[in-house]
Specification:
TIM Barrel; three-stranded antiparallel sheet; 20 helices; alpha/beta; eight-stranded parallel sheet; about 525 residues; 2 domains; single chain
Length: about 525
């Protein structure tokens, strides 16, 4: 490989100059010493397995680590904001890296957050906190029509496809999930050998391209789906309606990335650009969606089946609920993907301006299910910039039962957010199909980091809940999360959003205006624009 050859050439030059220093003149040591040192560092870099950057960029890769050591000093006055306007002073990547490496992330000083700035959120702690449970709880996913329920962890690997990620990254995620006892969503690119190698629990995501269960003309292949869904590793099936970072858009995988293995996994021609449509061919109405989900569960042998969406409108969600009631059939789970979710490539207008943020999306889906009396049959997952224990607790209060993380899990396997995902030149081997670059990612080391990150983050969430006097996430309530809306005004989530009573939409009495209009306009047989 090129990097190994360059290091070898450097070593040869260094030895030659060293020979001159020994045989001709001691003055040659001024050149020989730094060359020998660089050759020694380069040799170490290409043989070690802990740092992907150094394996791909021997010697010069140390400049990045040098910058990391001074970053807290040069960035201490900069504050990053997320889509809710909530400031935080610590780089999220640093938090993930610390937990993934098993480093304690305690801060020796007080908060640097602007606690009086609008958008600041905090939890209400209890005067009598509870002990932190030894083992974190799991969430039972499986409604009345499910015969093989699954115990979902509070934090899981969100959807990222093989093709977008390298084989090594997929294996590291799955090995970490297997060791930590949490789920690994395949993304819509199909189930590969890399998803199956370590036996981690899989959530098989089916997108609009039906990759892995696709007919020659791009339709859904029921027989192939049933065959693969019967695998022991497949624990749940998720139908992707939309993605938070680019709702309403399909994916594009350039032909240069569609090698023989990816073509086989996805069921597409090798070397041809793969375009996923923005819509499903197998349904076009809420009622057809509900029927298709029931058919997927039947084909999967009774395994939990649900769907993922970025919420577009309250009316669409209520139309699906009406269809569930009309068909007397419900999915086992709904994953709400927020607009703040990430992706390797999407038009900036979509990233910035299309889709409902996770906070509002969760509130809409949770309340729609409560108001139609369906909430106890369906679990809600949340995805979109989940990276810390506080993020988990916040989303549970806002209506979720469990959470998924993609970007944070990528950080755990070594992503440095170089934003080269779409170029196939990822410097750390995470988002590339270049075998030379991908080889730098050491699977055992990165799998350990994935497990550490997930366990430490869930542990942090449990510590926060215990401080609030809660050991069971089901006991979290909206009044426990508060937001500053002005310098002198703090509002709890109980008052910030409308929270419907069980069956309130069916009763029709005293509905808030926005819910009354959306309920009246929703139709189980049409998604009305």
């Amino acid at each position: 490989m090129l990097r190994t050859a360059l290091v070898a050439a450097l070593a040869a030059v260094a030895l030659a100059v060293g020979a001159l220093a020994l045989s001709v003149s001691a003055w040659w040591w001024w050149a020989a010493a730094p060359l020998l040192a660089a050759a020694a560092v380069g040799t170490y870099d290409v043989t070690q397995r802990r740092h992907s950057v150094l394996r791909n960029y021997p010697v010069v890769g140390h400049l990045r680590h040098l910058m990391e050591t001074i970053r807290p000093e040069v960035q201490q006055y900069f504050v990053e904001r997320d889509y809710d306007g909530r400031p935080f002073d610590k780089d999220t990547r640093s938090t993930v890296y610390e937990r993934a490496k098993g480093v304690a992330d305690e801060d020796p000083f007080g908060t640097e957050l602007s606690v009086y700035e609008p958008g600041y959120e905090f939890f209400t702690h209890s005067v009598v906190p509870k002990p932190v449970p030894e083992a974190p709880p799991t969430v039972r996913v499986g409604g009345p029509d499910c015969t093989k329920p699954y115990g979902m962890a509070l934090l899981n690997v969100s959807a990222m496809s093989f093709g977008s990620l390298s084989a090594q990254a997929v294996r590291a995620l799955n090995k970490g999930a297997a060791a930590g006892g949490f789920a690994h969503d395949t993304g819509e690119g199909g189930i590969s050998e890399h998803h199956l190698r370590y036996g981690g629990d899989l959530v098989w995501e089916i997108g609009t391209g039906y990759f892995g269960c696709r007919t020659d003309d791009g339709g859904f292949d029921a027989a192939e789906f049933a065959r693969k869904a019967a695998g022991d590793s497949v624990r749940c099936v998720s139908l992707k309606l939309s993605q938070g970072a680019k709702p309403g858009m399909g994916g594009v995988l350039p032909g240069a990335k569609v090698n023989a293995e990816i073509a086989r996994v996805r069921g597409v021609p090798e070397g041809e650009t793969v375009i996923s449509p923005g819509y499903h061919r197998v349904f076009s109405t809420p009622r057809e969606l509900v029927r298709f989900l029931a058919e997927l569960r039947r084909l999967a042998g009774g395994k939990p089946t649900g769907f993922k969406l970025c919420v577009g409108s309250r009316r669409d969600v209520l139309a699906i609920c009406r269809a569930m009631l009309a068909e007397d059939s419900t999915p086992d789970f709904i994953v709400v993907d927020g607009a703040e979710g990430g992706t390797g490539a999407a038009p900036m207008e979509f990233v910035d301006h299309v889709g409902t943020p996770l906070t509002e999306g969760l509130a809409i889906v949770h309340n729609a299910l409560v108001g139609t009396g369906l909430r106890d049959r369906i679990r809600i997952g949340a995805g979109g910039k989940v990276a810390t224990g506080a993020d988990i607790v916040r989303r549970l209060i806002q209506g979720a039962d469990y959470t998924n993380a993609a970007r944070a899990m990528m950080f755990a396997v070594g992503c440095i957010q170089s934003q080269r995902c779409h170029t196939n030149t990822c410097p750390v081997g995470v988002a590339t199909q270049d075998p030379g670059r991908a080889r730098a990612l050491d699977v055992p080391d990165k799998a350990l980091r994935v497990r550490r990150f997930q366990q430490a983050t869930v542990r942090s969430a449990m510590q926060i809940m215990a401080s609030m006097g809660v050991t069971d996430p089901a006991l979290l309530r909206p009044h426990m999360l508060r937001r500053r809306t002005a310098y002198d005004t703090v509002v709890s989530y109980a008052d910030l959003f409308t929270w419907l009573e069980p069956g309130q939409l069916l009763d029709g009495g005293g509905l808030p205006g926005e819910w009354a209009r959306a309920w009246d306009e929703s139709d189980p047989d049409a998604f009305v624009v």
